[in-house]
Write a structure and sequence with these properties.
Elements: H1 2-9, H2 11-60, H3 64-93, H4 99-114, H5 118-128, E1 129-135, E2 138-148, E3 155-163, H6 164-175
Antiparallel strand pairs: 1-2, 2-3
Helix pairs in contact: 1-2, 2-3, 2-4
């Protein structure tokens, strides 16, 4: 609980985590907008090409069989582009939480832990902690919260390491 409090529930940690998550959300939204705009232009170009083929067939009396292959290729391109546009729309519709909302959720969790309710604490721990591993001289906690790596902005689980001797000292003093 102490490590969770230090890593996620301290005021500094809440601000840092909120800023990182919101910054990542803004970056992804901007990237999706560029992809969306490009895809919409591409879709418009495909629609124009399909329209020209339909116009050619209707005005010149050319058999549809003559252009069927090209029309099939364009229709397949159109389906793929529309699918990608739907996918981008779904990503953008994913609820991005504000820094204030993230802070509020974490503060509510901290209040539940501070209440000393064992069942509530277990529930909160299950929400946040993926695993706790004792590795020789340190303890490693892996959280269920994915954060963007500061160097490459790829999401990965938040982790924390604490020296085992430090933990033993802290808990020995807490019992005194």
């Amino acid at each position: 609980l102490d490590q969770l409090r230090n890593d996620l529930f301290s005021d500094g940690s809440i601000r840092k985590l909120s800023a990182r998550l919101c910054g990542y959300g803004r970056k992804i939204t901007e990237e999706n907008k560029v992809d969306y705009d490009n895809s919409m232009r591409e879709l418009s170009n495909v629609d124009v090409k399909i329209g020209k083929i339909v116009q050619l067939v209707s005005e010149s009396g050319i058999s549809i069989e003559t252009v069927r292959g090209e029309l099939k290729i364009l229709e397949e391109q159109k389906r793929k582009i529309e699918g990608y546009i739907r996918e981008l729309g779904a990503k953008n519709n994913t609820v991005m939480m504000s820094e204030e909302t993230i802070s509020e959720v974490i503060k509510q969790s901290m209040e539940a832990i501070d209440s000393k309710d064992i069942a509530g604490c277990r529930k909160i721990l299950s929400y946040y902690i993926e695993s706790v591993t004792v590795c020789g001289d340190h303890v490693e906690m892996k959280y269920k919260i994915d954060v963007p790596d500061e160097s490459n902005n790829i999401l990965s689980p938040l982790t924390s390491k604490k020296d085992l001797s430090t933990l033993k000292r802290e808990y020995k003093h807490a019992g005194d």
